[in-house]
Amino acid sequence: MKSGPLAFACGLLFALGLGLSGMTQPSKVLAFLDVLGAWDPSLALVMAGAIAVHLPLSRLRRVSQAPGDEIGCAADDGDADGTGTLIDRRLVIGAAMFGVGWGLSGYCPGPAIVSLASRASGVLVFVGATLVGVALYRRTVR
User: Fold this and answer.
1) Which residues of the chain have pLDDT under 50?
2) How far apart are CA 3 and CA 71, in angstroms?
């Protein structure tokens, strides 16, 4: 099977999981981040479920895969297996920007794309701003 249909099927399964778990609702994400108020741990349970599925499968893939036969996309720095350990200024700034955007909006890029179906103004602004950020990054950094 080519990676296109497989990637589409994985994306569809991811979107369905996000929708069924309620993780496309910014209020659920913001409630998870409100650890001193009305904290909602459901996002942690979704993350734990994702890790429980991903970890054994990624270990199995790593063991069974021949070198140079990677599936999926490699990181821009040539780190095809995702084991890079370089923590630099760009990584820290990017992570901080991601966290601030997530905390302010309640959207993460994956759930935001799924939420586009709702055509809510907040998600449209978030995805638009994300696309502008990507374009600025490509124009200035690369």
Assistant:
1) 1, 72-78
2) 8
